[in-house]
Amino acid sequence: MGSLHLLSFAIIGLSLNLLAQEGTPAPKPYTQSVSGYVKNDMYKDTRETVTARDGHFLLWPAPVLLDSVGNDINDIESFNILAIQSRITYKFAGPDVLGAKVSGLIEGDFFGNSNATINSFRLRHAFAKLNWDKTEILSGQFWHPFFVTSCFPGTISFNTGAPFNSFARNPQIRLTHTIDKISIMVAALSQVDNTSRGIGGTAGTSYLRNAEIPELHAQIQFETKNDSLKTAFVLGGGIGYKTIEPRVSSSYLGKVYKVEEKVTGLSAIVFSKITTEPITLKLHVRYGENIPDITAPGGFAVKEVIDTITGECAYTPLKSMSYWGEIHTNGKNWEFGVFGGMYTNTGTKESMSSVTNSVHGLATNIAAMYRISPRVIYKINKFSVGAEIEYTAALYGKNYDANYIPATTSEISNTRILLSTIYAF
Length: 425
Fold this sequence. Notes:
425 residues; mainly beta; 16-stranded antiparallel beta barrel; two-stranded antiparallel sheet; 58% strand; globular; disordered N terminus
């Protein structure tokens, strides 16, 4: 009898469950897709350059390096062919969570994380998103907020306009809320591949981690379009605040001491894009303080020694201004475009210490830089072939004053000729 009762209860329970589900829409199925491209870059440089991955990621021309008889060792031409930018993107979506549409993405390429690991698979993006009607939460690794996905250079070169345009991917959590045509975004970031510099140069992510707070960002963007006129307009701006701890100990007068030092930096961007049927125009301005972590020259200097026993110091960030603009056609098969950028080191925020005269960071001896790069791309179906010329000139400084402004500069330039084929899938 007990078994019959249990069987009866099981049947009744199953029947009630089926009745409760009747009329309830079935949960959305999981969806997934794989995409990407195979890209092969062939390039020639007229001079030794500062780059990443065997010259693939071009930054700026290397300074003069004289041998024993006065010849410039860096005055040398080179070429290379690499397909390491080829990438794979996996997108997925599933049933709603808390009333939000859920989606995610994992993307990687074969760029490696260093020259030693070139050709190996590395993570580019990995995030999940929750989307409500007007609000989105993104959690994972994605572009730094200063790399604006609605307004960035469309160069053939993998540097995507760096160092004039910010270039970094960061683990982060960001919240975006949309009100009509205006979106407001706030984000908190850590670092992984693109990191800050400290007293010891590059030391992974420790400089930001030891500061105890994430990098903070806020951004506002206005976007509108007119379908009948086939035009679109984007205007926005953002601000970021970052604190790093450049070292945790000092070696001073033959002894080692624990120190607690901070370097703060406030940076900002303004950007705009106008799209019409025949052409697209983009403009971008960046003010930066201590920004090597977004692939740009910068850093900080010693302002003063505040403890004569331990050697503990106070610091001041290096400031800079960057500008870039781009115009390109929107043809079905042919695209003609030109990118131009300019960078200026505007010195330290406060006067440097006359005692230590110490500066730390990335390419802090570059006083100014500019680039012009025209391109042409032919596209048919999923295949395209492009050619681009990148002329980049850097003005290396000498005889710096108390605010790290050079008295004299010398200009060094490089021309890169780039041919590329891309097959997307």
